[in-house]
Amino acid sequence: VNGSIEIPVVVNVLYRTAAENISLAQIQSQIDVLNADFNASNSDYNLVPSIFSGVKANVGITFVLDQVIRKSTTKTSWGTRDAMKKTKSGGLNPTSPTTKLNLWVCTIGGGILGYAQFPGGSSATDGVVVDSKYVGVTSNTGPSYPYNLGRTATHEVGHWLNLRHIWGDTTCGSDLVADTPTHNTANYGVPAYPHYSTCSGTPIEMTMNYMDYTDDRGMYMFTTGQKTRMDALFLSGGARFSFAQ
Ligand code: ZN
Ligand code: CA
């Protein structure tokens, strides 16, 4: 917390094709995005609308590439039931999951960009999964556009650090964070500002929050309330206290 949390990242690459065997440069570009986004040094942070300037936050968590483990496989897609996290199902078991963030890079399938395990679950499956096509920064015109700026991992690491979707996964639901407005539902694309909620009080929605579902270029902030929720994990008794040691 307060810039003192440093999280080693183990990247587990499962590949069948050459494209799935992403380069070290591609992986490092993802680590760089995580560091920018979690330290408010992303180049689009200045786009945060002024009505949110009082709540926009520098989370202050640093990510360090620890190691890259690569494994060739014959699987064409891995699904969302953790097969990639188990050596016995052809994947790779996590490395030191109570002290390192494990990131699995593989083809998930079904149009899924990524998924994460919330804090408090089994360490054997702890970590985040991001489809190989959406890891790191890629060209503006390539097949991974509009998810080409590494924000899938930012969003998934947000879940790994206990953040809920900003719309609370139901109509006008709660994300358990007080300083984020209530959203009707998920937003997609890059909504024009201001986008008003029809929920109680008709607030302007914070569509540029990493925990919405907008395109990568449409998301560029966390809030103080989200930071507080993440920070709590690293305190004594918190679900990720082992990462703070
Ligand atoms: Zn999500
Ligand atoms: Ca909220």
TrEMBL record:
<comment type="similarity">
    <text>Belongs to the peptidase M43B family.</text>
</comment>
<keyword id="KW-1015">Disulfide bond</keyword>
<dbReference type="GO" id="GO:0008237">
    <property type="term" value="F:metallopeptidase activity"/>
</dbReference>
<feature type="domain" description="Peptidase M43 pregnancy-associated plasma-A">
    <location>
        <begin position="115"/>
        <end position="232"/>
    </location>
</feature>
<keyword id="KW-0645">Protease</keyword>
<keyword id="KW-0482">Metalloprotease</keyword>
<keyword id="KW-0479">Metal-binding</keyword>
<keyword id="KW-0378">Hydrolase</keyword>
<keyword id="KW-0862">Zinc</keyword>
<keyword id="KW-0732">Signal</keyword>
<protein>
    <submittedName>
        <fullName>Zinc metalloprotease</fullName>
    </submittedName>
</protein>
